[in-house]
Write a structure and sequence with these properties.
With 343 residues, the protein is α/β, with parallel strands linked by helices. It contains ten helices and 16 strands. It is globular, with a radius of gyration of 18 Å.
Length: 343
C-alpha cells in the first residue's frame, strides 16, 4: 500500500469533505412513496456517513462540510459531536439551508429518494474553508463526486486535493454519481476526469465508473427509477482501465451483493467475496463499505482484508433502517466477520 500511510504522527486519520444532510427515512417498510405516513430523522450525505463510519471503527475522524444557520444544522452538529467526530471545521453559511433527503424503502430493489438541495449550504464550501481545514494534519482526505457538481464547491474540492497531494496526504475519491445534482449530467465525466490526476484511490460502482470514463457524451445513457440507482451503459473493464491511466494507484469497485474487486495500477486485481445477508435497506451501504475499506487501508492491511472489512460493514448496514446512525462499531464488525468464517 501507499508509503503515505507512514504519516502516523498526524492528528487525524481521515478528513472527509462534501455533502451533509438530514435524512428522513420512511417508517413504512414496503409502502409505495405516496402511502408513507411517517419518517425517522437521521444524518446522511456520502462524506458525512463515511466520517461517522470511520469514527465508530476507531479512527480519529474529522469532516469539512457546511450547514445553514438553522435547526437542521443544529441537528447534524449535535449528532456528529455525540459520535465523537471532529466538527471544528464545519462551516455555517448564512442565507443557505442545510440539505435534506427523503427516502422510501421498498425492498428488495426499490429505494426511491428525493433531494432537497436548492440553496444548500454544503455546495457553498470555498477555498477559504479548505485553507482553514487540517489537510496537512490528516493521513487521508476523502472527496466525493457531488462536491464537484457546482461552484464554489468544485474549485474548493480540487484545491483540497491539490493541497493534500502537496503534503503527502492520501486522496480518496468516492465517485458518488447523483445525476440530478448536476446542471448537466454529461458534465460529470469530464469533471471527474479533471480530478483524477490528484487522486490516489477511487471508489465506485460499475455504473459510476462508466459515467466517469465516458468521453463521448452522446453515448451516455442514464436510466433510473431512483437517483440512488443510476444505470450507465458501457464497458466497465475499459472504464476502470481509463480511470487508472489518469493517475490513481488503485480503483475499488463495490458491487453490493457481488464480490468487491480492487484494481491496481500495475495490472493486478484482487477480489474479495461478500457476506450474504437479507437486505432490508440498501441506502447507505456503499458509504458503510467505504468506511470499512478505509479503516483497513489506514490500518495498513492488505487490499483483500480491507475489502472484506468493507464488505462486512456494508452487509451490516443493509440489514438496518438508515446509514450514519446505524454504522457498525469496530468490534461489532470484527465479530460479524469472525462468525462467518473470518477474513
Amino acid at each position: 500500500m501507499s508509503e503515505k500511510l507512514d504519516r502516523t504522527d498526524r492528528i487525524y486519520d481521515i478528513l472527509t469533505m462534501g455533502r451533509s444532510s438530514i435524512d428522513l427515512y420512511s417508517n413504512e417498510i414496503g409502502a409505495p412513496f405516496p402511502q408513507i405516513k411517517s419518517f425517522a430523522a437521521y444524518v446522511g450525505g456520502c462524506p458525512t456517513n463515511i466520517v461517522v463510519g470511520t469514527q465508530r471503527l476507531g479512527l480519529k475522524s474529522a469532516v469539512l462540510t457546511a450547514v445553514g444557520n438553522d435547526p437542521v444544522g443544529d441537528f447534524l452538529l449535535q449528532f456528529l459531536e455525540e459520535e465523537g467526530v471532529v466538527t471544528t471545521f464545519i462551516q455555517r453559511k448564512p442565507g443557505r439551508r442545510t440539505s435534506a433527503v427523503i427516502l422510501g424503502i421498498e425492498p428488495p430493489n426499490k429505494f426511491p429518494l428525493v433531494y432537497y438541495r436548492d440553496n444548500c449550504a454544503d455546495i457553498e464550501l470555498t477555498i477559504d474553508d479548505v485553507m482553514a481545514a487540517p489537510i496537512a494534519d490528516s493521513r487521508c482526505l476523502l472527496i466525493s463526486g457531488t462536491g464537484l457538481s457546482r461552484e464554489p464547491s468544485r474549485s474548493a474540492t480540487l484545491f483540497a486535493a491539490e493541497q493534500a497531494q502537496a503534503v503527502g496526504t492520501t486522496v480518496v475519491l468516492d465517485l458518488d454519481f447523483r445525476p440530478d445534482q448536476w446542471p448537466d449530467a454529461r458534465a460529470y465525466g469530464v469533471t471527474v476526469r479533471s480530478a483524477l490526476r490528484l487522486v490516489d484511490i477511487v471508489i465506485g460502482t460499475a455504473d459510476e465508473t462508466r459515467a466517469a470514463a465516458l468521453t463521448d457524451v452522446s453515448a451516455i445513457s442514464v436510466e433510473h427509477s431512483q437517483v440512488s440507482d443510476a444505470h450507465v451503459s458501457g464497458n466497465a473493464d475499459l472504464a476502470v482501465e481509463s480511470v487508472l491511466k489518469a493517475g490513481p494507484k488503485s480503483f475499488v469497485m463495490k458491487s453490493g451483493a457481488e464480490k468487491t474487486a480492487v484494481y491496481l495500477h500495475n495490472g493486478e486485481t484482487i477480489e474479495a467475496p461478500p457476506f450474504p445477508v437479507e437486505v432490508y435497506n440498501i441506502l447507505g451501504a456503499g458509504d458503510a463499505f467505504a468506511s470499512g475499506l478505509l479503516y483497513g487501508y489506514l490500518k495498513g492491511w492488505d487490499w483483500y482484508r480491507a475489502a472484506r472489512m468493507g464488505n462486512a460493514c456494508g452487509a451490516i448496514v443493509v440489514t438496518r433502517h438508515g446509514c450514519a446512525n446505524f454504522m457498525p462499531y469496530e468490534q461489532e464488525a470484527l465479530d460479524f466477520i469472525e462468525a462467518r468464517g473470518g477474513f
